[in-house]
Sequence to fold (114 residues):
Amino acid sequence: MTLARKSAAMMAIVLAITGSAHALTPMKALETSIETATGGLNLPSSVPANLSLRPCTACDLVTLQLATTSEFFIGKETVTFARFTTYAKASSRGLTIHYTPETKVVTRMVASQR
Fold:
């Protein structure tokens, strides 16, 4: 067997071993999201605070934590929580709430601009 073939065979073995080991590692969601609307959402007056909502009409109530590290966006613009709350209460807008599933801490809330 030539050196090139030995190298190729060794590489194939290494890839097979690392590929199968990688396949055994369970996937884990780092973040999950809820799509809803700002209308009818009862936002707290300040952060940190809890935020409870139903992701759908048949879903159980979910309680998330708004932390001082949570970020708030109107479209792509980062805004303060006070500005976000004022904007959300003005009219019903699309809203995506992103949070860490293990801790239920909100990482960011994004209200649509339109």
